Amino acid sequence: MQKLGELKLPPFFNYPPYFTLQPVRETREKQIQLWKELILDYCRTQKIFVVGLEEDFPLFSNPAIERSLNHEARVAFLSAIVSDGRAEWMDKGHRRCLILWHRIQDWADIILRFVKENGLEDSVMTVEEMRSGIESRGTDVHGMDRTVLMRALKLLENKGKLAIFKGTSTDDEGVKFSV
Amino acid sequence: MRRRAGIGGLQNAAAARDQYRLLGENVARLRTDLMKEQLSTFRSQLEDFARKHKNDIRKNPAFRSQFHEMCAKVGVDPLASNKGFWAELLGIGDFYYELGVQIVDVCLATRPHNGGLINLEELCKLLSQRRKGAREVVSEDDCLRAIGKLKVLGSGFEVITVGKRKLVRSVPTELKKDHNEILELSQAQGFVTVEEVERRLSWSSGRATDALETLLDEGLAMIDEGHRDGKRRYWFPCVSSVSSFVASETL
């Protein structure tokens, strides 16, 4: 079976008609379901947060069978993920899509776990440190998309778990945990 | 012989007819009795045989199929009832009952993908995947028998033959001759184009398009606009092996 990164590609990926948006409703629903799962799985294993519709996203074409998704199909599949609450359009023209393979709430929980496991309950960190520092290495927080991270942090701030403040010396924001 | 006239002659003729009929009935009865006796001997021997080869019948699908054939010849249907001698002896009723339920399951699970038409081979493959834990092997013959029993439920399960393949239909759609011919044609590559249908079957363009559109609406076909030549291809998941893969994910 073909592989893309660590992800085993499902067999439908090699069946040409799955690359054409199906005209019959029931068939299309099944098709969309399979694509939704594939896109989310792929983004999760590859830690991809943003999918550009006009970019060379590896899932959008399969050279082995010489098929690729047209714009309409790409929009249809991503829109379906958006309506499931697992993605958001980043612009009005629907050119870029933010993929939330963990929902913001789940990301917030992951951050809390990370804080507790590293004994950072009363510490101060910068946002950039969280994304690329030593502490987060090997956790899901490492390499997180900044937009998603900020949204999760804001959610935690609203719950009183931390405070976000502007740093004095750098442009970066700081986070004071009070878990 | 000169025909005897009068009422006496008529009565004689009638009496003779009665005699002949009686004699005929006697001969027939004798023959039937003899036949019945032979059959009952055979049946009891069949039962002995079944008792002796119980394990083979349960575990070996080829043996099971031959046993069924033998039973059919003497008018014994081990599947007819879940009670009684045969079921108790072999537990064979339960086997097919369970298989039938699993067949319905698989057909329902794969329906969104194949429109309710599945290759018998695929069905068997999926069933074996499902029954990994069970010791008994399932053959195509077993599937056909189990489906035969499902028909009694009037649920529209049916086995149709298209070309060399057997397909199991779990939707009430009646496939017309035109549709069967297209399915048969598609078995070579897994897909057809309108042009190919027109050329190979010598149909008018309208006839080909109509039949293909119907198959599409029924969920039996999927379109593919992605080929270099720009011609729309109609793919049939029920004749391609891809259906087993897609289905196994959802099962």
What descriptive keywords fit this protein?
heterodimer, A: alpha+beta, Arc Repressor Mutant, subunit A, 2 domains, three-stranded antiparallel β-sheet, about 40% helix, B: about 250 residues, mainly alpha, 6 strands, about 65% helix, flat
Specify the helix fraction band of chain B: 55-70%
Note poorly predicted spans of chain B. Answer: 243-251
Relative strand content of chain A = 15-25%
Let me know the number of strands of chain B.
6
Task: Give structural notes.
- The complex is a heterodimer of chains A (179) and B (251).
- Chain A has 179 residues and is of the alpha+beta class.
- Chain A folds into 2 domains: 3-99, Arc Repressor Mutant, subunit A (Orthogonal Bundle); 104-177, Arc Repressor Mutant, subunit A (Orthogonal Bundle).
- Chain A has 5 helices and 10 strands.
- In chain A, the strands form 4 sheets. A 3-stranded antiparallel beta sheet of chain A has the order 3-7-6, with helices on one face. In chain A, strands 8-10-9 form a 3-stranded antiparallel beta sheet.
- In chain A, strand 4 and strand 5 (67-68) form a beta hairpin.
- In chain A, helix 1 crosses helix 2 (71-83) and helix 3 packs across helix 5 (146-158).
- Chain A is elongated, with a radius of gyration of 19 Å.
- Chain A starts with a strand and ends with a strand.
- The model of chain A has no long low-confidence stretch (mean pLDDT 89).
- Chain B is mainly alpha-helical and 251 residues long.
- Chain B folds into 2 domains: 18-90, no CATH class; 96-250, Winged helix-like DNA-binding domain superfamily/Winged helix DNA-binding domain (Arc Repressor Mutant, subunit A).
- Chain B has helices spanning 7-52, 54-59, 61-73, 84-90, 92-114, 120-130, 140-151, 177-186, 194-201, 205-217, 242-250, and strands at residues 117-119, 158-162, 165-169, 191-192, 222-224, 233-235.
- In chain B, the strands form 2 sheets. Chain B has a 3-stranded antiparallel beta sheet, sandwiched between helices. A 3-stranded antiparallel beta sheet of chain B has the order 4-6-5.
- In chain B, a hairpin with an 8-residue loop joins strand 5 (222-224) and strand 6 (233-235).
- In chain B, helix 5 (92-114) crosses helix 6 (120-130), helix 5 crosses helix 7 (140-151) and helix 9 packs across helix 10.
- Mean pLDDT of chain B is 81; it is low at 243-251.
- At the A-B interface, helix 1 and strand 5 of A face strand 5 and helix 11 of B.
- Chain A: Keywords: Protein transport, Transport.
- Chain A: It comes from Cynara cardunculus var. scolymus (Globe artichoke).
